[in-house]
Design brief:
By secondary structure, the chain is of the alpha+beta class. The chain has 13 helices and 25 strands. A hairpin with a 2-residue loop joins strand 8 and strand 9.
Length: 565
């Protein structure tokens, strides 16, 4: 039916469809019909051919996202992964060939390799998070084929075509386009143009890869015919029993079985307290539990952790280290991940990505005016940025820049439904995003989940410490290594609340009075492969079927709520 994919091809495609800084999405069944990729779509024969070979995935179990653009770093990783092992990649990671690719960047090794062997030019900046243009993708493929002709022979099979816009291309791009066109790897648009400056999409990449690597597309009757059936609602189960010699009360259920996961903040504002019963009631909570640690003693109710609800970022923690995080993907699959939440912003004008930088946090205070941290403030934080800024962009609910500040301002209003991107002190890295921005430009924000095995995270809440990791109970030194150093948290035998995930995706929420290590023994005894602690003490709150099992002794700043779909 079709040529079998080699191991190198599997690696290449898996690498190509990694999203941003994130490891590839979990494997899907080979016979999945994506809701956004019907069988009569022009790209379907190529997409499903690669899916059947188990070498590409969707962004979720029901979506392929064919129009999503491919980043420059992702494209280079695709090429590198087809010829290099991780061990062979090591020498390239610290070469420092580009000013905008640090050795800590996930794609540094791939990018430096590509520059070192001549696939990409060493011209100072690489722009790893910019979308790759069709012209550049062709240039890289031709350079790669020259180095590895056995993997990409570029054998001519088509008569040459003159594209209507080829006079606008450089000689090098024109020659590369011609080579790939004659090899049958690429073609133009219906108007006869190639559009070298347009961006390559996942659908276009699927076709190019099938052609380049000689994987035969599927016929319509070979493609899947229906999406996976929706899972029926399955009720949660409350329990009260002794585990590891400790009395435990809790709830278990599978969020994929008809639940919607939500992170709820007090009165829909950061720094606001609200009773647990009120949060559960107004969000129609079926199962609910208290969430991340917060400053309850001063009355500020400031949250410590990352909170993401239905893809909306309420707050991000520092990127200093990976954070233990409970995450739910677009299909309701729950997992415990250890994530560095790295947010990138890109300035776009007339469809062209101009400047970008990452390591942008959300809704944390920047108290030192000499601190160059870049921060996004949303209306969940307040009506205005709470201190003076050096540079800032005010962005409306549609992502359009409505105000540009360069040179300082004492107060910046946050547009309704929008946000403000700011810095209090010049950082010296990609300042052009601020200085060159104009009203009417678009500011695109993208979250990257570094260290996560799940790419399509919808809802996430970080807390910790980690109690169970890969089936093993963690100890006190592990808690300290994660940054949890307070004695009563680590060693105190007090009220604890934990959340864990079993190998089959079942979520277990448990309450007990014990030490943190013993809480790990409890979660392992309940069958969890991964588990983390939530806030404890007087914050402990647990609801099942809307009814209260554990009542908190204080108002809360945030909760994790599961409602029936």
């Amino acid at each position: 039916m079709k040529k079998k994919c080699s191991k190198a091809l599997a690696l290449l495609l898996a690498a190509f469809f990694t999203l941003g800084l994130i490891p590839g999405p979990r494997a899907l069944a080979a016979r999945t019909l994506f809701a956004d990729m019907p069988r009569d779509n022009w790209a379907a024969p190529y997409v499903y051919a690669l899916v059947e070979e188990n070498v590409i995935n969707g962004v979720s179990s029901t979506r392929f996202a064919p129009r999503e653009k491919v980043k420059r770093a992702q494209f280079v990783k695709m090429l590198a992964a087809s010829v290099l092992s991780e061990k062979e990649l090591e020498p390239y990671k610290k070469l420092g060939l580009f000013s905008d690719v640090s050795e800590k960047y996930w794609g540094a090794g791939y990018i430096n390799w590509a520059a070192q062997v001549g696939i990409v030019p060493k011209d100072g900046r690489f722009r790893p998070e910019a979308n790759i243009s069709r012209g550049d993708s062709v240039l890289y493929m031709v350079a790669f084929a020259g180095l590895y002709p056995n993997k990409a022979p570029l054998t001519p099979v088509e008569a040459p075509v003159d594209f209507t816009d080829q006079s606008a291309m450089s000689l090098q791009v024109r020659q590369a386009v011609s080579a790939c066109q004659q090899a049958g790897i690429i073609n133009g648009y219906s108007d006869g143009s190639f559009q070298a400056n347009a961006y390559a999409s996942r659908a276009e990449a699927s076709k190019m890869l099938c052609k380049l690597l000689e994987v035969a597309p599927l016929s319509k009757d070979q493609m899947p015919t229906q999406p996976p059936p929706a899972k029926p609602f399955r009720d949660s189960v409350a329990f009260s029993k002794s585990v590891a010699g400790i009395g435990v009360r809790g709830v278990e259920f599978n969020p994929a079985n008809g639940y919607t996961a939500k992170v709820v903040i007090g009165k829909d504002k950061l720094f606001a307290g609200e009773s647990a019963s009120s949060m559960v009631s107004r969000t129609k909570g079926y199962v609910a539990v208290n969430g991340a640690f917060f400053d309850s003693y001063s009355g500020k109710n400031e949250v410590y952790g990352t909170l993401i609800n239905n893809n909306k970022v309420y707050r991000t923690e520092s990127m200093a280290q990976a954070r233990p995080t409970f995450a739910v993907d677009s299909q309701g699959q729950a997992s415990i991940q250890h994530i560095k939440f790295n947010q990138a912003v890109t300035l776009v004008r007339d469809g062209q990505e101009l400047y970008s930088f990452d390591q942008v946090s959300t809704n944390r205070a920047v108290n030192d005016p000499n601190d160059g941290t870049r921060m996004i403030y949303t209306s969940e934080y307040g009506a205005k940025v709470p201190f003076s800024v050096f540079r800032a962009l005010a962005v409306d609910s549609k992502g359009k820049v409505v105000k540009v500040i360069n040179g300082g301002a004492k107060e910046v209003q946050i547009p309704s439904g929008g946000f403000v991107l700011m810095e209090r002190h010049e950082r010296g890295v990609e300042e052009r995003l601020f200085t060159q921005a104009q009203a009417g430009d678009t500011l695109k924000v993208q979250m990257k989940y570094e260290g996560s095995s799940v790419s399509d995270i919808v809802t996430a809440l970080s807390c910790g410490p980690t109690l169970v990791k890969n089936g093993g109970v963690r100890k006190e030194s592990d808690f300290i290594a994660e940054g949890f150093t307070e004695s009563k948290v680590i060693y105190g035998a007090n009220a604890k609340m934990a959340i864990g995930v079993k190998p089959d995706g079942t979520v277990v929420i448990a309450h007990a009075t014990c030490t943190m290590k013993n809480m790990g023994n409890v979660m392992k005894g309940l069958g969890c492969k991964e588990a983390i602690s939530l806030d404890g003490g007087a914050s402990c709150a647990l609801y099942n079927k809307g009814g209260c099992i554990i009542s908190p002794g204080r108002v809360l700043s945030n909760m994790l709520v599961f409602s029936k779909k």
